[in-house]
Specification:
This protein is of the alpha/beta class and about 700 residues long. It has 4 domains: about 190 residues, Galactose-binding domain-like (Jelly Rolls), CATH 2.60.120; about 80 residues, Immunoglobulin-like, CATH 2.60.40; about 270 residues, Glycosidases (TIM Barrel); about 100 residues, no CATH class. It has an 8-stranded parallel β-barrel with strand order 21-22-23-24-25-28-30-31, surrounded by 4 helices. A 6-stranded antiparallel β-sheet has the order 3-2-4-9-6-7, with no helix packed on it. It has a 4-stranded antiparallel β-sheet with strand order 1-10-5-8, with no helix packed on it. About 40% of the residues are buried.
Length: about 700
C-alpha cells in the first residue's frame, strides 16, 4: 500500500496536477505595449473576516454571494451588503498600509470596480491582474471567471463574451490567510500584505493575437538569437515577422498547428552589461497583430567557480531587496518605488540585486534592464513547506512558470532561484529538483540557484554541501555569523569548505541596527554593532576562493510580524542598511566603500593590463616604427610606470595593501632593470625587490586565489 501511495505522489509531482478549477487563461506577456484600459484607482471594498459573502451558515458556497452585487428591488428585500456605500481602497495597493485597522488583518476583502466598454468587432478582451495576494476569485457581472493562487505573479481571464456596453462590475474576492499547504506556508519573515497589490487592466487584442515570445542569445553563443513565438487562436501556416531595426534584422517564421514557431537567426549585437545596458527595439508582428519590446542580449554561464557575463568573469556586488516602499510604507508597486530602490542599490555600488523572497513587480525588472543591474529572481518556496503535498508542488511550479513567462526576455535576470533556507531531506530534494528541471525546460539560457544553509564540521569550519547543489549552477548560502551565530569577531577564525566546484554567492548575512541608536561596537542593535559586524564579515568572505558574489541582508528595514521588540524593532526587521525613512546607517558606508574598492581594483588592473599590452605589442616598421620605438624607450616607459604606480597607490589608500604591493612590485623591478641596462649592479637590487614581492604574494596566496584575481 505504501508503495502505491508513493508511486501516486511521484506521478502527481511529475504531472503537476491540481484540484483547482477555472484556471486563468494563458498569460499574455508584455502588457506595456498592448492596447489596455487602466482600472487602477479607487475600488469599493467590503471587509469580510468570516467570508459571509462567499459561504452560507453551513459553510457551503453560496450562489448569492457578494459577487452578485445585488440591490434591493423593494423596501422589504433583505440584502446585508452594499458595495456602493462601503469603504474604498486604492488599487494597486495593500489594505494593511491604507487603513490602520487592517494593519494585522489576514482574511478576505472584496473589491469592486464598475466600468463601461464599447465592444469592437474582431476584438477580444481580457481582465489582467499584475498580482493579488494571495488567493483571488474573480467575477464579472455576477459570473465567476476563475481562481488564481499565488500572491506575486500575474494572471488574466478572458471576458469577451461577458462584457457589456454599460454598468459592468468586476468583483474580486482576495484572501491573504496563510495556509500550511500554501506557497509560502504559514511561517515567513515579511509582512503579509493583502489586496490587489499591482496594476489591474483590461487588455484588447485581435481575435488571433501574439500571446507570448522568447528571444535571447542561444546558450553558448554570442551572435545567435534563438527562441520562439506563440500565437493564440490561429491555424498552422501563420507567418510571423521578427524585426530588430537597429541591427537590420528581419526574419520570417511560420507557426505549426498549435500557433508555435521556433526562431533562430544570426546577428552581431552590442551585448548588454552593467557598463553598457544596451536594449534593442524588437518588433514581432503578424497580419493581425503587432507587439514591440525593448530587449537586451547577453550570455550568462559558469566555468568552474567563475560566473561569466558575455564570456568574461564577473563579481556580483549585490544587495537583497524586499518589495516594500520605505518612505510611503506598504507594498512597493510603482515605477517610482522601483527607481528609488534600485537607485539606492546603485548608490551603494551594487551591480546586482536579489529580489527576495518572491517575484517583484515588473517595474523592477524593466528598470533593472535599463539601469544595468543584474537580478536574482526568486519564488516563495520558503523555509518549511509541505514537500510531500502534490498540490503544493503544483502551486510552486505554477508560480515559477508565471514568473519566468513574465520576465523571460529581461536581460537583467541572470538567476532563477527555486528556494530559500529549506531543510535537507529526500522529499524536499525531489520537490526542488522538479522545479529546477521545469525552469531549465522553460528557460535554458539562465542559471539556476537557491539560497541554502550551511553547517559546522568543527567550531571553526563552515561546510556548504547541500545535496541540492548538484542540480544548481550557482550555490547560494545564507549565514549570520556575528548575529544569530556568535559575535562579529567569530568570523575572524572561520574557514569555509565548499563541496562543489561551482560559483558561490553568499546570499544573506547581516545584523540589526536601529538608525540613530549609538553605543559601543559590542552593544547589539546599535549602528556601531552592525558596522563592526560588516567589517568582520567582509574580512572573512574575502578568504573564500570560490566566492563570486554577495547579497547582504538587506537594503532597507521592512515590516515583519516576527519582530515585536518594543522601541527597537516595533514589528520591523532592522537589518536594513537604510532605515524605513531613507536614512543611511553606518554599515551602508562600510559596504559602499568595499564595493567601490572592487570597482577601483577592476579599473586599475584593467588599465594595467591595457598598458602592458600596449608596451608589449608589435611596433610599426619604417620611419614611423623608429620614431615610436624611440618614444617608448625615452618617454613611454615612464608614462606606463607612472600610471601603474598611481594605480598601486590608489589601492593602498583604499586599504587593499596586498593588491597594491602586487601591482607596485613588478613596476619597481622594471624601473630598476631599466637602469640596470646602464649599470649591471642594479640587477642585484631588482632581484631583492622581486623576492620580496614573491614573499608578499605567497603570504596572501589564499587571498589572491579568491575573488580579486578572478575579477582582474
Amino acid at each position: 500500500m505504501q508503495t502505491k501511495v508513493g508511486l501516486l505522489l511521484a506521478i502527481l509531482f511529475i504531472l503537476g496536477t491540481s484540484s483547482q478549477a477555472q484556471q486563468p487563461a494563458p498569460l499574455i506577456t508584455n502588457i506595456e505595449d498592448r492596447h489596455t484600459i487602466n482600472l487602477n484607482g479607487r475600488w469599493q471594498t467590503i471587509i469580510d473576516p468570516y467570508e459571509t459573502g462567499y459561504y452560507d451558515y453551513r459553510y457551503q458556497p453560496s450562489p448569492n454571494g457578494y459577487f452578485k452585487n445585488a440591490k434591493p428591488q423593494s423596501p422589504s428585500d433583505l440584502i446585508e451588503y452594499d458595495f456602493d456605500t462601503s469603504g474604498q481602497l486604492d488599487v494597486p495597493g495593500d489594505w494593511n498600509s491604507q487603513d490602520q485597522r487592517l494593519l494585522f488583518y489576514e482574511g478576505t476583502v472584496w473589491y469592486k470596480k464598475s466600468f463601461d466598454y464599447q465592444k469592437r468587432d474582431h476584438t477580444r478582451l481580457f481582465a489582467y491582474f499584475g498580482a493579488a495576494n494571495y488567493l483571488a476569485d474573480v467575477y464579472l457581472n455576477g459570473e465567476k471567471l476563475g481562481r488564481h493562487e499565488g500572491g506575486f505573479t500575474p494572471f488574466n481571464f478572458e471576458i469577451t463574451n461577458l462584457v457589456r456596453a454599460k454598468d459592468n462590475f468586476l468583483i474580486v474576492k482576495v484572501d491573504n490567510k496563510r495556509r500550511r499547504d500554501a506557497v509560502p506556508t504559514l511561517n515567513t519573515d515579511w509582512w503579509n500584505y493583502g489586496g490587489l497589490t499591482r496594476d489591474v487592466k483590461l487588455i484588447q487584442v485581435p481575435e488571433a493575437f501574439i500571446e507570448d515570445y522568447f528571444l535571447q542569445l542561444k546558450k553558448g553563443s554570442a551572435n545567435e538569437i534563438a527562441g520562439w513565438v506563440k500565437l493564440n487562436n490561429t491555424n498552422s501556416g501563420k507567418v510571423v515577422t521578427i524585426e530588430i531595426p537597429e541591427a537590420g534584422v528581419r526574419q520570417l517564421v511560420t507557426t505549426d498547428a498549435n500557433g508555435y514557431a521556433p526562431v533562430s537567426f544570426q546577428s552581431r549585437l552590442s551585448l548588454w552589461s552593467p557598463e553598457n545596458p544596451r536594449l534593442y527595439l524588437i518588433k514581432v508582428s503578424t497580419d493581425t497583430d503587432s507587439v514591440s519590446d525593448r530587449i537586451g542580449f547577453r550570455s550568462i554561464e559558469t566555468r568552474g567557480t567563475d560566473i561569466l557575463l558575455n564570456g568574461k568573469p564577473i563579481f556580483l556586488r549585490g544587495i537583497c531587496i524586499h518589495e516594500e516602499s520605505p518612505l510611503r510604507g506598504g507594498r512597493a508597486f510603482s515605477k517610482d518605488d522601483a527607481r528609488m530602490l534600485l537607485g539606492w542599490a546603485k548608490e551603494l555600488g551594487a551591480n546586482f540585486v536579489r529580489l527576495a523572497h518572491y517575484p517583484h513587480n515588473e517595474y523592477m525588472t524593466r528598470l533593472a534592464d535599463e539601469m544595468g543591474i543584474m537580478v536574482w529572481s526568486e519564488i516563495p518556496v520558503y523555509w518549511t513547506i509541505l514537500w510531500d503535498n502534490p498540490e503544493t508542488f503544483a502551486n510552486a511550479r505554477n508560480q515559477l512558470r508565471e514568473s519566468i513567462a513574465r520576465d523571460q526576455n529581461k536581460a537583467s535576470i541572470i538567476l532563477w532561484s527555486v528556494a530559500n533556507e529549506t531543510p535537507t531531506g529526500a522529499a524536499r530534494l525531489r520537490f526542488l529538483k522538479g522545479l529546477v528541471d521545469d525552469a531549465r525546460k522553460m528557460d535554458p539560457t539562465r542559471l539556476l540557484t537557491a539560497a541554502n544553509e550551511r553547517h559546522y564540521a568543527d567550531p571553526n569550519t563552515q561546510v556548504i554541501d547541500d545535496p541540492l547543489g548538484e542540480a544548481l549552477d550557482v550555490i547560494g548560502c545564507n549565514e549570520y555569523v556575528g548575529w544569530y551565530d556568535g559575535l562579529p569577531e567569530k568570523a575572524d577564525l572561520l574557514q569555509w569548505k565548499i563541496g562543489y566546484n561551482k560559483p558561490l554567492i553568499i546570499s544573506e548575512f547581516g545584523g540589526d541596527a536601529l538608525f540613530g541608536y549609538h553605543g559601543e561596537a559590542s552593544v547589539r542593535w546599535t549602528e556601531e554593532y552592525q558596522k563592526n559586524l560588516y567589517e568582520h564579515q567582509l574580512k572573512m568572505l574575502k578568504k573564500i576562493p570560490s566566492l563570486r558574489g554577495m547579497t547582504p541582508w538587506i537594503l532597507t528595514d521592512f515590516r515583519s510580524p516576527r519582530r515585536p521588540l518594543p522601541r527597537i524593532q516595533d514589528f520591523y526587521n532592522r537589518k536594513g542598511l537604510i532605515s524605513s525613512r531613507g536614512e543611511r546607517k553606518q554599515a551602508f558606508y562600510v559596504l559602499q566603500d568595499f564595493y567601490h574598492s572592487l570597482i577601483i581594483i577592476f579599473v586599475v588592473f584593467g588599465l594595467n593590463g591595457f598598458l602592458n599590452f600596449l608596451s608589449m605589442g608589435p611596433m610599426p616598421s619604417g620611419l614611423a616604427g623608429q620614431f615610436v620605438g624611440a618614444l617608448v624607450l625615452s618617454h613611454y616607459f615612464w608614462v606606463v610606470a607612472a600610471l601603474q604606480i598611481a594605480g598601486g597607490a590608489l589601492l593602498l589608500v583604499n586599504r587593499f595593501v596586498p593588491l597594491g604591493l602586487v601591482l607596485l612590485g613588478p613596476v619597481i623591478v622594471n624601473i630598476i632593470l631599466y637602469h640596470a641596462l646602464m649599470n649591471p649592479a642594479g640587477i642585484a637590487l631588482a632581484i631583492v625587490v622581486a623576492i620580496l614581492w614573491l614573499i608578499v604574494f605567497y603570504a596572501h596566496r589564499q587571498y589572491f586565489s579568491g575573488i580579486f584575481v578572478q575579477r582582474t
